[in-house]
Write a structure and sequence with these properties.
The protein has 278 residues and is an alpha+beta fold. A hairpin with a 2-residue loop joins strand 9 and strand 10. The strands form 4 sheets. It has a 6-stranded antiparallel beta sheet with strand order 7-8-9-10-4-11, sandwiched between helices. A 6-stranded antiparallel beta sheet has the order 12-13-14-15-16-17. A 3-stranded antiparallel beta sheet has the order 1-6-5, with no helix packed on it. The chain starts with a helix and ends with a helix. It has 5 helices and 17 strands.
Length: 278
């Protein structure tokens, strides 16, 4: 809880002030979560200060709320492209991402329980940036990161609004895919990838995870032979292993039966894997 409050104040998310006439503050609450790793073991315990967004009034406390997220098909395709070109897939996480989004609306919240300022009990916080729980928080964060990417030479895909690409003068390319506060990226120039990590760390508070090994509930293993995506996390009976070689041909092996390798197209693979785990 102390870390969460420190992160909010370090990010200059709010300021203590008197509540203006005609405004009603939104309540806040603490939400506790246990984060696990790919083995299901407890990785850390996290406390999050969340605004009671259900009390917000449209047209007063918020307007637009939509924010795009990457489709799972896009992530599959990015993985296949990396495997075809023998590129590593890297992953980074933005700490307290929603706290970076700027608010256009005037929003006031109550002081959080346990952290009420002595001598200022009657005051409230005016939010400069978004807070988790606000209806417009995802949109505010997406607008912030989208602006940052485009200001730094990235081109947004017109068909997938969370997919960005960038080329340098030598024709080297880098591709970034954003899923809320998680991002994966690939490219053919290690220098570009390193510069990207450095720039992101300067702009936001980041966690550099390194090579992608676990993303959106999917376990990923990157080796010299290829990229393996495990689906055993879905159900105990789903122990299929997908090995990516090229986008058009993917080899699937069933470890349980020891059966021979089947060759399927990408489209038929998606159907068969979903059917396997139904």
């Amino acid at each position: 809880m102390n870390e969460e409050i420190a992160s909010i104040e370090r990010n200059d998310t709010w300021e203590l002030t008197n509540l203006p006439k005609g405004h009603k503050p939104i309540g806040v609450k603490w939400v506790y979560k246990t984060k696990t790793n790919k083995e299901g073991q407890v990785e850390k315990y996290k406390a999050r200060l969340v605004a009671k967004g259900y009390k917000q009034r449209q047209g007063i406390d918020y307007d637009e709320v939509f924010a795009p997220v990457a489709r799972i098909d896009t992530i599959r395709l990015l993985t296949a492209v990396a495997a075809q070109n023998k590129w590593e897939i890297y992953q980074m996480d933005v700490k307290s991402a929603f706290l970076n989004g700027y608010l256009e609306e005037e929003v006031y919240i109550e002081q959080p329980l346990g952290y009420i300022k002595q001598g200022h009990e009657d005051k409230v916080y005016r939010l400069k940036k978004a807070l988790y729980g606000l209806k417009q928080a995802p949109r505010a964060w997406n607008a912030r990161i989208d602006e940052y990417f485009q200001e730094n030479g990235f081109i947004k895909s017109p068909y997938e609004h969370t997919l960005y690409s960038k080329k340098n003068e030598d024709g080297d390319i880098m591709i970034v895919c954003l899923y809320v506060d998680d991002m994966i990226f690939i490219g053919n120039n290690p220098g570009m990838l390193h510069d990207f990590k450095t720039a992101m760390t300067k702009e936001f508070e980041m966690t550099d995870i390194g090579e992608m090994s676990y993303f959106l509930g999917v376990e990923v293993k990157q080796t010299k032979e290829g990229i393996f995506v495990g689906t055993s996390y879905v159900k105990p009976s789903c122990n299929g292993i997908i090995k990516f070689y090229v986008p058009s041909e993917i080899h699937v092996q069933e470890p349980k039966t020891g059966g021979r390798v089947k060759r399927l197209t990408l489209s038929s693979l998606i159907i068969s894997k979903y059917s396997l785990c139904m």
